[in-house]
Amino acid sequence: MSTLDQRTIGIIVLSLLGLLVIVKRVATGSVLRDRPGGGLRLWLTHVFNLSFLLVVNPLAGILLVSRKLELDPTRLALEPPWLALGQLAGLLLTVAGYLLMAWALLRLRGNYQPGGNTPRATDRMVVAGPYRLVRHPMYSAALCIALGLAGLTQSLACLAVFVIYLVLIGLLIPAEEAVLKRAYGDQYVAYQRQVGRLIPLIAR
Questions:
Q1: CA distance linking residue 16 with residue 82, whole number of Å
Q2: Structural domains in the chain?
Q3: What is the reported pLDDT for 10?
Q4: Which residues contact 54 (CB under 8 A, 6 or more apart)?
């Protein structure tokens, strides 16, 4: 049984997703035409990311709005007050994740490319906005959204999605940063030393 109003939460999730799609289109000029560079690992991560954002999130939002989430057989057996705390934390993480991803996209604009692609001659290394706080704010945002959704839905399936995301991103970042080092050299190495990977001030 949910302690927060499911319909309101569902509307928030769907609204944030719609806002993110608009921001992505405005900032980068496309929504789904991105093609990641690199091998199979990068393609799998890209497909997983799209599936999570464009299938799992809308489905969770629709289930919340229709108040049918209690049909999920993987729901965690938490009781108030832990249920309320988990859902509140989930809502805050979800909202923060969507806002962080939108901020990162707006900051990148024409410099945006899917992971693994070699920067173009016209691309500049972006170190402002959320990139002052973490080197990979879009991955941080995706993890916040995934963990937040697990808290909102109290679902082991959503928690498993977060764990898979964490593993994939952990495998992807070294490959992506190797490309950035080749493109930007000492400038990127210095940036790595100064800014945390996914969490501010941690794992520089």
A1: 25
A2: 6-194 (1.20.120.1630)
A3: 85
A4: none
